[in-house]
Amino acid sequence: MGWQLAAALIATQVASTAVSYMGSKQQSRQLRASAAWDRYLADQKKKQELIRANQEATMLMSEKRAAIGARGVSIGTGSTLLETQAVLDELDDTVFWIEKGYSNTLMAQDAELAGALAQESWNRKTTLLKGATSIATTAYTSDFGGSSSSSGYSASDFQRTSASGIRSVPGGAGRTGPAFGGS
Questions:
Q1: Closest residue by Cα to residue 118 from 107, 106, 126, 130
Q2: Of residues 107, 121, 116, 118, the one with CA closest to residue 31
Q3: Longest Cα pair distance anywhere in the chain, in angstroms?
Q4: Does 21 reside within a domain?
Q5: What are the per-10-residue average pLDDT scores of the chain (183 residues)?
Q6: Which of 119, 108, 97, 123 is nearest to 20 (CA)?
Q7: Closest Cα partner for 13 from 126, 136, 122?
Q8: N or C, which terminus of the chain has less Cβ within 10 Å?
Q9: How high is the pLDDT of residue 64?
């Protein structure tokens, strides 16, 4: 493979890795924006539930006051005070469970976001490692000597070991061959 082709391959691999990395960063930003929107929706739902609970308590209090007035009893004394307190206790209980549901929803959303961000971070790091490995492999197996023809060797050709345990170079050239000034 000519050095121009190898350089083009390496540039393509660098560009591909960079685009994948930037895409992963954008995905992380999208996940955060989505989580913020989910938080906003949960907050709106909580507010709606609180308004509904307050309206129901107001209606119930109005009914109680009307019933008390129809009986001719003074409001805020004796059993009427207990009825009013029961309505307020029920409202407090409802508000507590609305708040509890809201906090549980937020915790679940935070956990889901953390998991998605961790996964995206892992993907980003593995993309960088794969890109670096791919670039290194291309650089290792490329002919940067400038020769016009391809050498035809692969990375595994340079891993061969002779029976005596000495690594050999493809083509059989040794340290005493003509390339090293020997005969």
A1: 126
A2: 116
A3: 128
A4: no
A5: 78 90 93 95 96 94 83 73 88 96 96 94 92 87 59 51 49 47 47
A6: 123
A7: 136
A8: C
A9: 83
Instruction: State the residue range of the domain holding 120.
Output: 29-125
| Predicted pLDDT of residue 154 | 54
What is the rounded CA–CA span in Å between residue 25 and residue 6?
A: 29
Q: From the CB of residue 13, how many other CB atoms can be counted at a distance below 10 Å?
A: 20
Instruction: Confirm if 21 and 128 have CB atoms less than 8 A apart.
Output: yes
The pLDDT value recorded for residue 22 is: 93
Neighbours of 78 (CB within 10 A): 9
Listed in order, strand segments (DSSP E) in the chain are none
Place of tokens 């121009």: 4
Residue with tokens 């000519």: 2
Residue holding tokens 């954008």?
Answer: 26
pTM for the model stands at: 0.61
Going by C-alpha positions, the residue among 83, 114, 101 that lies closest to residue 43 is 101
pLDDT of residue 48: 97
The 8 Å CB, 24+ separation contacts for 117-120 are 117/28, 117/31, 117/32, 120/24, 120/27, 120/28, 120/31
Domain count for the chain: 1
Inside any domain, residue 77: yes
Residues whose CB is less than 8 angstroms from the CB of residue 20 and which lie 6 or more positions away in sequence, other chains included:
127, 131
Q: Which pLDDT does position 177 carry in this prediction?
A: 44
